[in-house]
Design a protein that fits this description.
Shape: rod-shaped
Strand content: 5-15%
Structural class: alpha+beta
Number of helices: 16
Number of strands: 12
Number of domains: 4
Distance between the termini: 77 Å
Oligomer: single chain
Strand order of the largest sheet: 2-1-5-4-3
Order of helices and strands: HHHHHHHEEHHHEEEHHEHEEHEEHHEE
Radius of gyration: 47 Å
Helix content: 55-70%
Low-confidence stretches: 1-5
């Protein structure tokens, strides 16, 4: 099979060409020195001595040129091989003629260069070199026969030498083609391995899990950004795990000795919990392990979202079915109260019915509002006017005395928010604030201020701080410590905040209770 013109020759072929050129330099030096010792060597006549010296000098200069070309690797390997072999054939045949023809033995040196000619990947070009050398030998022998009027016995030696040239070049070519095929296969495998490594690195980096690969000696082989971010560590390739991740190294060593389970729960920086799983690379665990980190906090949040989504669909459907019976019960309780009169002994029972119907109706409204949290129509809201209007409306609706609220908002402060959602968030926060505050003048403070590129809207009440054991469940749906509450107020407030790219948090303070709504700021018009 013919080789492709774009064959890439391996470095070993270029090294062979450099070694051949070093041999060529040795020959050039030998020929130059032999000119001055012809009396001892007795193979060059006095008449041929100047010509032999000139050819030897030219041969040495060509050798220097080839060194320079090989260092640059220009032109291509095949072209340099053809050029150098042609130079060898011409110079050696001329010097052989000056030294007395085939009897000098210089023609045998052509075998070395024909072996190098076999390195050419293209068979046609390889055959060209011994063919050209054979023509040169025949021409030399023909000139010698014509000038010296000798017999044709010299052509037999030339023929045998020509056969040897072709045999040596052919054998070398077969070996070179095999080496080139193996090199191409090795390069293909190397490219495939590099592609697989790149794909593996890309897949590992995009995994939702943290991945850390450790050798048996405790050195870091590979990791992804998730693991580094979650563990809050400065991991470096090929570093000792004991240096860049001491806790992981301690757990890895314990697992390697069989003193720890293959699955553990650990706590990283920031208080997040992770499931750590070890996967051995060999049965005896001496080759290392793959450590996989799963963010349990994220899984819990995802499970909570799925649960709430299913619950929202269920309660949304039930809410519509419940409101009609509730309206009927409430209406019947009111009619019964009118028939019995205010002073009737059973009026207390009708009030209980009406209060509980009102509580159930409030819960239904909260559930319906929760299901509509994604329908946000965001607009620019001027906070100074909005907060003043909200406080006035809240006081009137809840029947609160004047002076309970304190409002502080910088003029011109605005946010991009769904006005209905913001109103509902503040209503839920202020309702809780009134429930737990001292209910004295100034006991509830509503403030809005700009901090960097954020706007903080804060609702503070002077009641007792929230107990530490209750803080983790503040925003959990249907969790409440008040028998009159639904447990949805804070949860709805947080969900509506997220729908508007804001964040509602509880801020621990020395006294009282503070909730902060962190919103992206908007430029003033």
């Amino acid at each position: 099979m013919a080789a492709r013109p774009d064959t890439v020759y391996p470095d070993s072929f270029w090294r062979s060409l450099r070694h051949l050129n070093a041999f060529r330099l040795y020959l050039a030096v030998f020929f130059l020195l032999s000119v001055f010792f012809t009396d001892r060597l007795a193979w060059i006549g006095e008449a041929e001595k100047p010509w032999f010296l000139a050819v030897a000098v030219i041969y040495g200069m060509l050798t220097g040129l080839f060194f320079w070309l090989l260092r640059r690797r220009f032109p291509a390997f095949g072209q340099q091989l053809l050029l150098s072999t042609a130079s060898d054939s011409i110079c050696l045949i001329v010097m052989m003629h000056l030294a007395g023809g085939t009897q000098s033995g210089l023609g045998l040196l052509l075998l070395v260069f024909m072996a190098a000619a076999g390195l050419h990947a293209r068979t046609q070009m390889m055959l060209l070199m011994p063919s050209a050398a054979t023509l040169g030998l025949l021409l030399q022998q023909g000139i010698t026969t014509w000038l010296e009027q000798t017999g044709g016995y010299g052509f037999l030696q030339v023929g045998l030498l020509a056969v040897a040239l072709f045999v040596v070049a052919g054998l070398s070519h077969i070996l070179a083609r095999g080496a080139l095929s193996e090199t191409e296969r090795a390069d293909s495998k190397a490219r495939e391995a590099a592609n697989l490594e790149m794909i593996n690195a890309r897949v590992i980096s995009d995994l939702p899990y943290g991945v850390v690969v450790v050798s048996g000696e405790g050195r870091l082989i590979q990791h992804n950004a998730q693991a580094q971010a979650w563990m809050g560590l400065a991991m470096r390739p090929d570093c000792a795990v004991a240096e860049c991740a001491p806790d992981l190294d301690r757990r890895f060593r314990a697992w390697q000795r069989g003193e720890a389970l293959a699955e553990q729960v650990i706590q990283a920086q920031g208080g997040q919990h992770f499931r750590l799983r070890f996967m051995e690379l060999d049965p005896d665990r001496r080759q290392g392990a793959i450590m996989i980190l799963e963010n349990l906090s994220a899984l819990e949040q995802e499970a909570q979202k799925l649960k709430l989504a299913a619950l929202g669909r269920l309660t949304g459907n039930l809410a519509h079915e419940i409101r009609n019976p509730l309206s009927a019960i409430n209406h019947a309780a009111q009619l019964l109260a009118e028939d019995l009169g205010k002073d009737a002994p059973h009026s207390r029972l009708t009030r209980i019915i009406e209060d509980n119907v009102s509580r159930l109706n409030r819960m239904v409204e909260d559930v319906l509002l929760l299901n509509r949290r994604d329908r946000a129509v965001r607009e620019r809201v001027d906070l100074a006017g909005m907060l003043a209007e909200f406080v006035s409306q809240f006081r009137a609706s809840e029947g609160l005395p004047e002076g309970v609220f304190g409002v502080d908002c910088a003029p011109g402060l605005a946010v991009v928010f769904d006005r209905t959602h913001l109103h509902q968030i503040l209503w839920n926060l202020c309702r809780n604030a009134w429930r737990y505050c001292s209910q004295t003048p100034g006991s509830i403070q509503v403030n809005a201020r700009s901090v960097d590129s954020q706007v903080w809207i804060e609702v503070y009440n002077d009641g007792q701080p929230i107990d530490e054991t209750l803080r983790e469940r503040l925003f959990e749906p249907f969790y409440t410590t008040d028998s009159r509450g639904t447990g949805l107020g804070l949860h709805i407030a947080r969900e509506l905040s997220k729908s508007n790219e804001a964040e509602l948090t509880h801020v621990v303070t020395p006294s009282g209770t503070l909730f902060r709504l962190n919103c992206p700021a908007t430029d003033s018009p």
